[in-house]
TrEMBL record:
It comes from Bosea spartocytisi. Pfam families: CbiA. NCBIfam families: ParA_partition (NF041546). This is AAA family ATPase. Residues 3-185 form the CobQ/CobB/MinD/ParA nucleotide binding domain. PANTHER family: COBQ_COBB_MIND_PARA NUCLEOTIDE BINDING DOMAIN-CONTAINING PROTEIN, P-LOOP CONTAINING NUCLEOSIDE TRIPHOSPHATE HYDROLASE. Gene3D superfamilies: P-loop containing nucleotide triphosphate hydrolases.
Length: 212
């Protein structure tokens, strides 16, 4: 399966969630390649930080911030069980290419209604991609949910029949995600049965049900 984390907004959690999804699959024995499609290369930085820190390799990270992604990603997918694309901010050409490559698009958003769920441009690109890829699935993922997660959950239910729908499992605002990013690790390596590790596992279970 090729899963792409896309949202033209920066700072919504594309890289964080892409790394954790890839890591969770790798931890379960799946062969995973993460494509860093962001010219800023934050996933590549994480990977370098990881090897400098002497942490064992979990999955390969490949930098492919170019709009031939839709041809290259399926080739990479042949050698592994899953490809996870960490999407670019703002670059429409790259975004189009990632949309053509993906089986499932996950759009991280913050639960605040004021945040705006995704840019109109992102949703337009998604509908354009569906002309060529009618089977393309897309979901919002609520990230950085605060203590009032109940509200986030209600929001998720209200929006469940929206297009794209919202995943039922949400991700909390947790320092451990920032700590993990900085030290080239993943949340489950810092606390293997903490709330972050558990919510990532739950998210994956839901994702696997959508796109088996
Ligand atoms: P994007 O790739 O969409 O730009 P990032 O994944 O890089 O977003 O996240 C932006 C910043 O927010 C990073 O510093 C990251 O550590 C932090 N962050 C992302 N998700 C969470 C979370 N659930 N809890 C705490 N910090 C988070
Ligand atoms: Mg990023």
């Amino acid at each position: 399966m090729i899963v792409a984390f896309l949202n033209q907004k920066g700072g919504v959690g594309k890289t964080t969630l892409a790394l954790h999804l890839a890591g969770e699959w790798a931890g379960k024995g799946k062969r995973v390649t993460l494509i860093d499609a962001d010219p800023q290369g934050s996933a590549l930085d994480w990977s370098q930080q990881r090897s400098r820190g002497g942490h064992p390799r979990l999955f390969g990270v490949v930098g492919l911030a170019r709009d031939t992604l839709h041809r290259e990603a399926p080739e990479l997918a042949r050698d592994v069980d899953h490809v996870v694309i960490d999407g670019p901010p703002r670059v429409a050409g790259l975004m189009r290419s990632a949309l053509l490559a993906a089986d499932l698009v996950l759009i991280p958003v913050q639960p605040s209604p004021l945040d705006g769920w995704a840019s109109a441009e992102m949703l337009t690109l998604l509908s354009e991609a569906r002309i060529y890829r009618p089977e393309l699935r897309a979901r919002f993922v609520l990230n950085r949910c605060g203590a009032r997660t109940v509200i986030a959950r209600e929001t998720a239910e209200t929006l469940a029949d929206h297009d794209p729908p919202v995943l039922r499992n949400t991700i909390g605002q947790r320092v451990i995600y920032a700590d993990a990013a900085q030290s080239g690790r993943l949340a489950f390596e810092i606390d293997d049965d903490g709330p972050a590790a558990r919510e990532i596992t739950a998210l994956i279970t839901e994702i696997e049900r959508i796109a088996p």
